[in-house]
Design brief:
236 residues, mainly alpha, Four Helix Bundle (Hemerythrin (Met), subunit A), two-stranded antiparallel sheet, binds protoporphyrin IX containing FE
Length: 236
């Protein structure tokens, strides 16, 4: 798989197939999310819901497959080893952009499932069309406990599967633990969000717009990273 991803790319002369596939899919996913925003603005609640669910599921599936294929090699492939420019540019320009990009990707991956659940709870279906309910939205203590148990259960299943695989690295175990702790942290933050934005419809609109801005910035930062690595400062 690694050899397959390392084949010559189709977008820039100096790039590889993995980087070009990743960048092209980033364009597709961001386009789908921004179109879903346009549908919400046009009050097309049902089409908006369908599109965010499809794009989020494919985006997460793709990230998991890509992460498995590269086995945490993303940083070493896209980091210092692949950058052919001067050291000062690497430290003062490239590294901050790459770090910002990775933070945005993580935020985007965490906020999407949260908004899918929040959006579903905050809306009602009238004659086949979804509308946001203009009322307070609170999570019951029992629901909160159930959510935490589901998160822990999923992590336990992945741990068991990973323990049966001989080639899994300690870094992978740490990465999974970090991913699930972040999801649990987001679920715990819900109580704070409830206080700040009690109305479910308003919460969905405010956080939804925040998420759409994160997706647009993710695309901007990945474009900059791609240009610096494969067009402006390719490794020769
Ligand atoms: C990643 C997930 C989601 C994101 C980022 C998101 C984002 C947004 C945004 C930004 C708006 C406000 C549009 C505007 O006025 O500027 C909105 C509205 C809305 N969303 Fe979502 N949403 C998501 C998931 C969902 C889901 C799963 C549902 C399920 C029913 C849903 C239902 C709605 C509805 C009904 C509206 C109101 C449309 C109207 O004004 O009539 N959303 N969403």
């Amino acid at each position: 798989m690694k050899d397959f991803l390392a084949q010559p790319g189709f977008l820039a002369q100096a790039s590889n197939f993995g980087a070009d596939l990743s960048y092209s899919l980033a364009l597709v996913f961001t386009g789908l999310f921004l179109y879903a925003w346009y549908l919400a603005k046009k009050s097309e609640g049902s089409k908006h819901r369908q599109l965010v669910i499809i794009s989020m599921s494919t985006m997460i599936l793709y990230f998991c497959a890509y992460y498995y294929a590269r086995q945490l090699g993303v940083l070493s492939l896209e980091g210092k080893e692949g950058f052919g420019g001067p050291d000062e540019i690497y430290e003062s320009v490239f590294k901050p952009i790459l770090t910002t990009h990775l933070i945005l990707v993580t935020l985007g991956l965490l906020i999407a499932p949260y908004l899918i659940v929040q959006g579903a709870r905050a809306s009602k279906k009238i004659e086949g069309q979804y509308f946001l309910k203009d009322e307070d939205q609170k999570m019951q203590p029992n629901t909160f406990k159930r959510v935490m148990l589901i998160i822990f259960g999923l992590w336990a299943v992945i741990q068991i599967v990973n323990l049966t695989r001989s080639n899994i690295s300690t870094a992978s175990h740490i990465a999974w633990a970090l991913i699930f702790s972040s999801v649990a942290l987001i679920a715990s933050l819900e109580k704070l969000v409830e206080k700040m934005l009690p109305n479910g419809a308003k919460r969905h609109r405010v956080l939804g717009r925040g998420a759409m801005i994160i997706y647009a910035l993710t695309l901007a930062s990945s474009t900059l990273t791609y240009l610096m690595l494969y067009v402006i400062y390719p490794k020769v």
